[in-house]
Amino acid sequence: MTFAATVLTLYPEMFPGPLGLSIAGRALADRLWSLETRNIRDFATDKHRSVDDTPAGGGAGMVLRPDVLAAALDSVSDADEPRRPMIALTPRGQPLTQARVRELASGPGAILLCGRFEGFDERIFEGRDLEPISIGDYVLSGGELGAMVLLDACVRLLPGVMGAASSGEEESFEQGLLEYPHYTRPVTWEGRTIPEVLRSGDHARIAAWRHERASEDTRLRRPDLIERHGGASQAPPSGARHEDEGQDQ
Ligand code: SAH
What we know:
Strand order of the largest sheet: 2-1-6-5-7
Strand content: 15-25%
Bound molecules: S-adenosyl-L-homocysteine
Radius of gyration: 22 Å
Largest sheet: 5 strands, parallel
């Protein structure tokens, strides 16, 4: 089964964009995943092909019409087998997490709805089984970059896309922790030397140091991760992940 992505957007020419390069691009060329776009405007019904209208109750901007959005979504979902989750990119959604990315990456793919202007008529969330997802607490001008972020995060986890090491359990967010810091040659750069422990060859000491740094940096930069994970970052550096440790959040 190939991870299949369908993106509904007013700007299909933005794709594959960065998803056509590097790891995601190679995986796309190797057919480890597929990408289809549909233009929301193709589902407009009036002679001006309008997809938006003014907000009820007044205010700035334009709102995407639910009838046009539904027609676009239905054009994909009516024949969708196996059924893929339908996701709307919106700052009003649940923040995307590595845990959700992993779930999505292990499934058949996703149908992604990208907003523009002021966003979607709220009734589309009631009328269709749409999961609202945000990629962070800031406002973009469109959902396309959000869709790319979500797809990039999923694709790198697909079997065969990256080496086992890189998609492993030590990466940031996998255990409620940020990853430990990395170093490479030269050993001394501008008077700064790679920590001695990393050059010691003592794997137990290295694992302990890395765990310590991961915990410390997470405490300093992202105390919210530790809280969400129930303090699991205090676990000893066994080098292996414990059975009772879930994924983040
Ligand atoms: N008026 C809306 C913002 C609209 S921004 C609000 O204040 O909530 C236009 C579109 O960009 C949105 O419909 C959405 O698809 C996309 N977008 C903006 N910020 C986003 C974010 N943080 N995560 C995901 N999509 C986002």
